[in-house]
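Researcher: I'd like a structural prediction for the single chain below. Treat it as a standalone chain; there are no partners to consider.
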Amino acid sequence: MPSYLTLPAAELERRAQRARQALSACGLCGHNCGVDRLAGELGRCATGPDAKIASAMPHSGEEPPISGIHGSGTIFFSGCSLGCVFCQNWPISHNATGNAQSADQLAQKMLGLQSKGCHNINLVTPTHQLAAILEALSIAAEQGLGLPLVYNTSGFDSPLALELLDGIVDIYMPDIKYDDAQTALRLSGAVDYVQVNRRALELMQQQVGRLEIDRQGIAQRGLLVRHLVLPGGLSGERGCFEFLAQLDPAIYVSLMSQYFPAHLALRTLGVDRPCTRQELAHAREEFFAAGLSNGWIQDDERY
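Model: Treating it as a single chain, here is the predicted structure.
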């Protein structure tokens, strides 16, 4: 049974209310802007208090236990709390392409994805829209939603956001983008990304533990961490993998080699080219050298 269904309906509603109240001095992401989004002020995410989504559809391009056979019920939220110069979804994340949705409309999107046979509800770039998500989830749960909830995030989540999600999210799927604070600031505009990200991963691990996959190969609960290899070693794979191994030597990791210079990357020194084969091979070597063994390496066979 999904985690949110084990909570009383009143508790789901209370979490949604707390998240909405938190928008009056917003600290849902690592920027901790403190702006009053309920009064129309905009922080780094440049997003109002209500839901805005770009698309909702079954998606087969996620990791095998997330996509499964019938696809992951993916909801792409508009806007983002980061400003990655190489963002591969920049029309959605930077330009906030999408449509406003009421809580009831978003709930119906979730229920619609369930009716299509999706294995889960996959919330992509959700942190800055957490209040709207919890409001919609409360409605959808009352109307029969019964799929695991995947929180697909950049990993720049505040302790406050994760406290609100404790006992609600089934599967956390965060990024671990960098091992160097200055690189994170230059490429994603995020002060203290490394510190915020490491603490977020620790809290996620405490909440859901190691990834659990059923007999059909579908994830039901746990933590799956993504790392996108950047050219020139800028993603700091050695430090990232060593941290993950300390967190849990059997942690599931998705090592991603799909980088290409999108958005502003072509004008940004160091990320203005794809990775070389040697760089990707080096990242794989660092993965195993750190003692990691569970997960997926993009374009390789599952091991």
